[in-house]
Design goal:
Helices cover about 45% and strands about 15% of the residues. It is built from 11 helices and 8 strands. The longest helix has 19 residues. 1,3-dihydroxyacetonephosphate (13P) binds next to strand 8.
C-alpha cells in the first residue's frame, strides 16, 4: 500500500511567534489524535524550520520547506540551500510550485536541478505540476503535465524516485475557491501514474503518492481523497486554520 499524505503549504504567512505557536498547537492535536506515521507534513517558511523541528521532534508530524536554492552552496546572496534545510531537521521540500514557476520564472530545467540537489542533500521532494486555465480550456492539460514530468522529473534514477511525492495542482484551482471535480482529479492522477509506469515500471507507479492541491477544504476533501489514484492533498489556505487542517487530515 502506498502512503496517504496531507501536507500543509503555509506559503508566506505567519511571523515567527505566530508560526511556532501554531506548530505547537498542531503538534499537541496530533499527539492526542495520532495519525499514521509520515502522513502529515507541515511546509513552513524558512524562518520557522529550526524552531518547528525542535517542537516536532518527539511528535508524529514531518516538516518541510517550500523552496530551495538551485546551487549547493557559495556566493548566492539571499538563497537557502537544500542542505541548510536538511540541517534544521526538515525532511521535505516543495519544488516546482506554480507560484514559483509563474512569479519567479522557474522552468522545468531549473526545477529538475533543484530536485536533484534536494535529493542529494537527503530531502524528500514534493514535486508540483499542473496546468493553467487556458491550457485546460484548450485541452492541453495532459500535454503540459507530461512535459513537466518528462523534463522536471524523469531524469531521476528509479532509486531517486523513492524520494518523490507528486502533487497535481491545477493552477486554476489554487486559492480561487474552484476545485477540480473528483473525476477530473482522478483522471489526471491516473494519467500521471500511467506515465510513471511507462517510464519506471509498475512497482514504482504503485508506490508513488500523488496528492491533489487546489482549494481543498474540509467540505470537499473526503470525496476527492476517495478516488483510487488520489493519495491525499497539498493544502494552502485551509492549512492555516487548525480546525480545517485537522479535519482534512481526518478525511484521509
Ligand atoms: P489553496 O489550498 O489555498 O488553493 O492552495 C493550494 C496550494 O497551492 C498548495 O500548494
Amino acid at each position: 500500500m502506498r502512503k496517504k499524505i496531507v501536507a500543509g503549504n503555509w506559503k508566506m504567512n505567519m511571523d515567527l511567534e505566530e508560526g511556532l505557536k501554531f506548530v505547537g498547537s498542531i503538534d499537541k492535536y496530533f499527539k492526542e489524535n495520532p495519525p499514521e506515521k509520515g502522513s502529515v507534513i507541515l511546509c513552513t517558511p524558512f524562518i520557522h524550520l529550526a524552531g518547528a523541528a525542535q517542537i516536532l521532534k518527539q511528535g508524529k508530524i514531518s516538516l518541510g520547506a517550500q523552496n530551495c536554492a538551485s546551487e549547493a552552496s557559495g556566493a548566492y546572496t539571499g538563497e537557502v540551500s537544500a542542505w541548510m534545510i536538511r540541517s534544521t531537521g526538515a525532511e521535505y521540500v516543495i519544488i516546482g510550485h506554480s507560484e514559483r514557476r509563474s512569479y519567479y520564472n522557474e522552468d522545468d530545467k531549473l526545477i529538475n536541478k533543484k530536485t536533484l540537489l534536494a535529493i542529494n542533500s537527503g530531502l524528500k521532494v514534493i514535486f508540483c505540476i499542473g496546468e493553467v486555465l487556458a491550457e485546460r480550456e484548450s485541452d492541453k492539460h495532459f500535454l503540459i503535465v507530461r512535459r513537466q514530468l518528462e523534463e522536471g522529473l524523469f531524469t531521476l534514477s528509479p532509486e531517486q524516485m523513492d524520494m518523490i511525492v507528486i502533487a497535481y495542482e491545477p493552477v486554476w484551482a489554487i486559492g480561487t475557491g474552484l476545485t477540480a471535480s473528483p473525476d477530473q482529479a482522478q483522471e489526471m492522477h491516473k494519467y500521471i501514474r500511467d506515465l510513471i509506469k511507462e517510464k519506471y515500471g509498475s512497482d514504482c507507479a504503485k508506490k508513488m503518492p500523488i496528492l491533489y492541491g487546489g482549494s481543498c477544504k474540509p467540505s470537499n476533501a473526503a470525496e476527492i481523497f476517495s478516488k483510487p489514484d488520489v493519495d491525499g492533498g497539498l493544502i494552502g489556505g485551509a492549512a492555516l486554520k487548525k480546525e480545517d487542517f485537522t479535519a482534512i487530515v481526518e478525511a484521509l
